[in-house]
Every structure is written in C-alpha cells, then in structure tokens.
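A brief tutorial aside. Many learners find it easier to grasp structure tokens once they have seen a single protein encoded end to end. The record that follows does exactly this for COMM domain-containing protein 6. Read the sequence first, then the structure, and try to relate runs of similar tokens to stretches of the chain.
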Amino acid sequence: AADKITLIPQDFFAELCEQIIQHLNRKIPGVNTAELCQRIQASGIEINADDLANIANIVSFLFSTAARSNLSTEELVTALGNAVSVLPKHAVQVIRHVWNERGKSISVSEDARNMATVGQFVDIKWKLGVAMSSDTCRSLKYPYVTVTLKVADPSGQITEKSFEMTIPQFKNFFRQFKEMAAVLETV
C-alpha cells in the first residue's frame, strides 16, 4: 500500500485522513473512497478504488490504534518506525499534522470498543419502474421497485447495494419499516 500512497497528492491524502478522523469521531458514517477516487482520477492520477480503500483501512487502523494507546504525535511517528522509510515524506507529514491537530479528539469509549462490528445505514433511494418487454416475452407490463441502500461498513467504507422487488414484496418491506418505526416510538 505504501507504493500506492506515493501516487496520492498531499491535499487528497490530507482530505482522506480528515475524513477518517471524522468517521472515528462518529461525525460522518464513513469514508466515501469511491467519490474521492473519482476526484483523484479526474486530476490525472491513476489509482483504483480498491487501492484507495485499502489505504483508508490502513490509516483508519493506524489512527484508531494510536487513539486506543493514547499516543502523542511524536510517539505515533516513532511507532511508525520502519514504515517511515517506506512511506513517502508527504504522507508522514500529513499523518503527523492531522494527528497533532485532531488526534486527541478521537473518543474511544468502552462502548465503542465493545460494540459489534456491523455496518451503518447512510441513505436509501428507490424508484418505481415497469418492465415493458424482454427478448423472451413481448408484453410484460410488470411493475417493480428498485431500492439502493448506501451502507458504511465497520471500517468506514461506503458501499451501495441495489435490489429489485415486486410490488407485493415492496409492500411487505414497507410494512416492516412501519413496524420498526412504531417500536422505535416506544423507546
């Protein structure tokens, strides 16, 4: 991953680190590496989303471990030790600066440490469609609902999952959401 970090300009790497700190502070649900990757690629740099996601995971692990260990900025840079010779100088400078400015703000409560590793719901989008025909059936006129869920996994990576439902399936889905809302009202 260190060789891929060299590809990322300092300003984009700083933005990635800031988003990771915000995620660790539970201010944002996750790090949108896909969007950041598109912006990096638009600036003319060849990097793929998987590599950027791996870098985000490594930096997130670094920051969360440093927070749990209550490391100072110098202790963090020293702990990087051998990696400093592998990491590009601009990456070490960004890590040092971000940790110095925002590192102490990471709250690592006992609840957060003991929390189950599940994803966090970010957004939902849906649309109604009608399949008019296919290559095997001339006249379908079949309504369906396409649902897209945006979820942040425990490491903070935001992913989208899409699925289609028939109208009866969507009605059941909607009924279950109403039941959840009713239960939440009692809490």
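Self-check: The CA atoms of residues 148 and 162 lie 4 Å apart. If you spotted this yourself, you are ready for the next section.
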